[in-house]
Amino acid sequence: MKFLYLFVVSFLLFISVNAQSPKYEFRAVWVATVANIDWPSKPGLSVKEQQREVISILNRQQELGMNAIILQVRPAADAFYPSELEPWSKYLTGTPGRAPKPFYDPLEFWINETHKRGMELHAWLNPFRVANNYTRPLAANHIAFKHPEWILKYGNKLYFDPGLPQTRSFVIAVVKDIVTRYNVDAIHFDDYFYPYPLDEDFPDTTSFAKYSRGFSLNDKADWRRENVDILIEQLNKTIKQIKPWVKFGISPFGVWRNSTTDPRGSASKAGTTNYDQLFANVIKWQEKGWIDYLLPQLYWQIGHQAVDFKMLANWWAEHSYGRAMYVGQAAYKVSPSSKTKAWTMPGELPAQIRVLRSIENIDGSAFFSSKHFNRNLLGFQDSLRLDFYKNKAIIPPMSWIDNSPPQPVLKVKKRGKRVKWKTVVKVTEEMDKPNSFVLYLNKVGTTFNSENSRFIYKIVQNTKFKFPKINRKKQLYEVRISVLDRLHNESKISTPVLLKL
Q: Please, what are the domains in the chain?
């Protein structure tokens, strides 16, 4: 029996390590700034310390195989970038409204460093949260002082009233400012629209009375949902009018509705749902084409009695409506001291990745959150680096935005272990411009397959590259290069050049 057990374990490990990973896959990690969850590690760090932490996070995530960063740039009506609309975040300098000194632009720094590593940066905003604690001071130039009628207290927090056209217009102005001034790859909202419910009703009776749009008091929940619908639809139009290639994504709570409430819902028993408590009809936005991706937070284990990970992943996949669907995974829950047995097991997150890769219409995942990859995740970092993310992956294209491939490289030259190439100079359409390059590598005699991710050696930004020494006794390799545009459409692959490596 012992021999049989060892054989089965060895066979399963062999299958896992040698399973082909997808050529196209979204691999992201959230970097939360609210309450200094991930970055900066504490408020008031020097500029050099802040930047060192950025570099450390990005190097770590690149090493693990991530290809996107979801950075929280507006945690609570504040900014991690210079803004004329909102004050500097207290989580950066320790004082609301105080700029970093010496001055630098954190968002610009993050974008540049992320793009250097061939990764996307998704700018993550919270739409309606104003303050996590109403007793704490706000910056003197905060919009809440100019328009106190926009602000509602609920519990110990402050929120913009979503029922006011003015607050929705203000959120749109904030997003417009970011998209206009920064080279972000996406705008990203999380699950906080209307706040998670407390024992008291959300105090929006005044805005309902003034802007009910014909809804009766019995239909107030539908009115609230429509408030959020209006915001999402307008945001999408605004983003695409400025820069059509900038994606718009939402990361909702993991349950839309329970099937006991709505036959269209999932076979779950969640106490809170997007539709009923957060007033966010997220699958409507996907179906209407108002967003480019959904990233539901499935922060539960496989086999959970009320909210089973596998069941929910399949449910969301069935509601992708031709748009991108990714899944949020709970790296933060993995711990040898967890009270839930599944999260004390090293195989839970790997098993979830296998589930996601087996489901049609799910094209990747994101992990919450960055800092947890610096602690003991029961070997999960090695599972990513040596197995699941060992091969590089291209972020999946979005054909509904753009599906035309860019022009291929013109000519590839070689010298020693170096290659360099030229691209078409005159490209007028921004979405068709070369954004990065895929280097394919295979040993001469090995059949090359462009759809097999193991042949992707690296994805780079520059038009030249020096290969390291691969073998003690130099062997011949074929090098091919393709162009990726801003939406990761791929050009034709170049004819191979031979290098001794």
A: 21-388 (3.20.20.80), 411-500 (2.60.40.10)
Instruction: Using CA atoms of 235, 241, 247, 252 in order, give the dihedral in degrees to the nearest 10.
Output: 10
Is 0.85 topped by the overall pTM? yes
- Taking the C-alpha atoms of residue 143 and residue 149, their distance in angstroms, rounded to an integer, is 10
CB-CB contact of 184 with 122 (8 Å): yes
Nearest to 331 by CA among 376, 286, 391, 382: 376
- Nearest residue to 457 via CA among 393, 364, 410, 500: 393
Return d(Cα 463, Cα 373) in angstroms, integer.
32
What letter would DSSP give residue 88?
B
Q: Are 26 and 350 in contact (CB under 8 A)?
A: no
Please check the confidence at residue 52 and state whether its pLDDT lies above 80.
yes
- The answer to whether the CB of 408 falls within 8 A of the CB of 491 is yes
**Residue 317 and residue 360 in contact, taking contact as beta carbons nearer than 8 Å:** yes
Report in angstroms the alpha-carbon separations of 492 from 327, 390, 453, 481, 495: 30, 24, 16, 9, 9
How many angstroms separate the CA atoms of 485 and 146, rounded? Answer: 43
**Terminal C-alpha separation, the chain:** 46
Between β-strands 436-443 and 364-367, what pairing exists: parallel, antiparallel or unpaired? unpaired
> What is the tens place of the pLDDT at every residue in 95-116?
999 999 999 999 999 999 999 9
